[in-house]
Amino acid sequence: MTLKDIAEMAGVSTMTVSNVINGKTSRVSQKTRDKINSIIEEYNYVPNMNARSLSNNSSHIIGVVTFLEEKEYASGYNYFENPYVSTMIGTIETELHKNGYFTMLQSVSRSSDILSLVKNWNVDGMILVFPTSAQNLEKLMDAANCPIAAFDSNYSHPNLINVISDDEKGLYLSTKYMINHGHTEIAFAADYEGNIVLTKRFNGYKKALEDSHIPFRPEYIFSYPPSYEGGIEAGRAIAGSKSPITAVVTTADICAIGIMEGARLGGYRVPIDLSVIGYDNLNLCQYTVPKLTSVSQNVPKKARLATELLLKKIHDNESDSNLGEIMDVEIVDRQSVISLY
Length: 341
Prior knowledge:
- By secondary structure, the chain is an alpha/beta fold.
- Helix content is 45%, strand content 16%.
- It has helices at 3-10, 14-21, 30-42, 49-56, 70-75, 83-98, 111-120, 134-143, 167-180, 196-211, 228-240, 253-265, 299-316; strands at residues 61-67, 102-108, 125-128, 148-151, 160-165, 186-189, 221-222, 247-250, 275-279, 293-296, 324-327, 330-332.
């Protein structure tokens, strides 16, 4: 059974059959799609991916890469348990599947790992889920012969698609939200140093304090990882500090949820004793008690946009065109902040 055989049985062109198999069905009627798919199912037709790859110089494979720190990689840390990562990758895979592409998922801890991936696997493009250093990206872009999409990078290259959230504005908004609810003793929880994205968010926190003439207090910085476990430690530390802190802003919803639990274990009530705002506005914000107020950067939309821009770059083959987008952020109000007025 070949494409030509299916086309003759369906009374259509081989191009129409190919489009249906590859998910490019916008110009194919539902009746024709059903007829072609019925023949494919009846004869158990399976496309020969190797032959397809050789014939059109395309593997229809997109590499999706997450960067781990070496200590995390060595410890066997499962990054895919992180709800931000799972939301990102789930959205990317869905969009790729809709467009007839396959997803190859890989975690790396060193720039040499991703260079090996580029050289040894025939991928049509790559999506980097977490930002990496400009130095690593420069090495990667020099070695890659395919377009690459990244999130929140500060590196620019003609073949790099960069989708950025306004991270400084995000923490500025959450800190101002606390201030507008009467809070002036506001803590920041995240070990931001050395991290591009978290540093931008920390700068937003400081700017909001400055604009409201509230002094910055270094002792109100709780440098714990923005994870659930790091949040528990931060929440315990805040509750045990005996300081006048009434509110805390952080850089991830999962960390904020940990802070709520850590504060509770330390004898605090959220939001009565401690108001908390998360970041990302993931679905799990609706399942906490109280429901978590958060900064929305619309993670699914961010993932879809990067995937769409990457596929556009692949199809248009405009190697000298620089694609990117800056996405806005907003506060989603729920129940984890109390007004002191």
